[in-house]
């Protein structure tokens, strides 16, 4: 058992007393605070901007949704959840929600498929690859208002170019503005035109990060281009596909510019046949009703819907990331052949080394004899 010893000097000892701790100077104190505080100052601009432009409007919108708030009269009485009940009790909100999901399905599904195909083509060794990669981004640079006005004329009911083209094949003119589902298809075409190239570049970046050894192994195994695409490329970019799907869902639920500019009135059609939820929010808050309380309630309901979709996507992403992408399987015959080639290459290298050693030994022996 160890004995405890005291650190105090014995009685009558002449040892000097312990020195007082030295005080730090101002520069040293400032250096300590710089090490501790500076990392938080470097990241503070993001949180400050987020608090001003993201968090405060979100909280303030929730406060406005609890009051009877008119655009002209200002803040009124506290009504609690009455605005939410009024919005959910109106058929216009559910009508706009159905239109939103319809346009989203007609735009996002073909958009993701076309973006993956375009990215796969751009990932191949083609001439002027930079030109084509920059070309697919041109529709994204064009202002959405200009795109909506151009496509609004193309899909005109009477003198539109699309109706003139299908009339050549004997098809009757389509009421792109009068028919509900036709208007959804026209608006989805505008969305696809603007966002397909942007998503294709995201997929292209993900495809270029795929290890090329996987394609070489698949080629040795006898897989063709289509087999490599579905067995190697798609599994390796699954996380990117989930990300693009999530952003497409958020963008599809917040679509506003295209349906707003599809006609000269900007109210979603005469019978609101293409009125989306954001367009309904605009009409409720600043349009015919001018009720900011109900408009804020619509905004928060849309936020909850987007949040639910985001949580579902997060759960799917977690499950995919935990499993991880699988490499393509190589047959046993190919494996045996690769091992045999490796052994043959090793044997050949060993034979070359042995020949070099014998040659060096013979040269040494010859030099000794000559000397």
Automatic annotation (TrEMBL):
The keyword Transmembrane helix applies. Its main location: membrane. InterPro entries: ABC_transporter_permease, MetI-like, MetI-like_sf. It is found in: Cell membrane. The keyword Cell membrane applies. Residues 97-313 form the ABC transmembrane type-1 domain. Residues 1-23 are annotated as: Disordered. The chain crosses the membrane at residues 40-63, 101-122, 134-156, 185-206, 237-256, 297-316. Pfam families: BPD_transp_1 (PF00528). Gene3D superfamilies: MetI-like (1.10.3720.10). Keywords: Cell membrane, Membrane, Transmembrane, Transmembrane helix, Transport. Belongs to the binding-protein-dependent transport system permease family. This is Sugar ABC transporter permease.
């Amino acid at each position: 058992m160890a004995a405890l010893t005291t650190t105090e000097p014995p009685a009558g000892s002449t040892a000097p007393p312990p020195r007082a701790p030295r005080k730090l100077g101002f520069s040293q104190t400032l250096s300590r605070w710089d090490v501790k505080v500076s990392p938080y100052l470097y990241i503070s601009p993001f949180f400050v901007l987020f608090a001003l432009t993201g968090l405060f409007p979100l909280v303030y919108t929730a406060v406005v949704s609890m009051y009877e708030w008119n655009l002209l009269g200002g803040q009124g009485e506290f009504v609690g959840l009455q605005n939410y009940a009024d919005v959910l009790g109106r058929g216009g909100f559910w009508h706009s929600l159905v239109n939103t999901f319809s346009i989203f399905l007609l735009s996002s599904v073909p958009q993701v498929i076309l973006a993956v195909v375009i990215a796969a083509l751009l990932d191949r060794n083609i001439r002027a690859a930079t030109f084509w990669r920059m070309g697919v981004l041109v529709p994204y640079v064009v202002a959405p208002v200009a795109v909506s006005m151009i496509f609004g004329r193309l899909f005109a009911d009477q003198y539109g170019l699309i109706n003139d083209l299908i009339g050549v094949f004997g098809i009757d003119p389509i009421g792109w503005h009068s028919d509900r589902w036709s208007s959804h298809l026209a608006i989805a075409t505008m969305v696809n035109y603007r966002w397909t190239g942007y998503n294709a570049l995201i997929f292209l970046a993900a495809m270029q990060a795929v290890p090329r050894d996987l394609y070489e192994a698949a080629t040795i195994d006898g897989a063709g281009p289509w087999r490599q695409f579905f067995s190697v490329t798609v599994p390796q970019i699954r996380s990117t596909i989930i990300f693009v799907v999530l952003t497409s869902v958020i963008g599809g639920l917040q679509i506003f510019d295209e349906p707003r500019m599809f006609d000269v009135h900007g109210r979603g059609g005469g019978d609101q046949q293409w009125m989306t939820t954001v367009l309904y929010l605009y009409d409720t808050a600043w349009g015919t009703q001018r009720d900011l309380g109900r408009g804020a309630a619509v905004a928060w309901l849309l936020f909850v819907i987007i949040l639910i979709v985001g949580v579902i996507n997060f759960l799917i992403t977690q499950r995919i990331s935990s499993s991880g992408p699988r490499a393509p399987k190589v047959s046993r015959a190919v494996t045996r052949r690769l091992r045999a080639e490796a052994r043959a290459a090793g044997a050949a290298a060993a034979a070359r080394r042995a020949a070099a050693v014998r040659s060096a030994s013979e040269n040494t022996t010859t030099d000794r004899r000559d000397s």
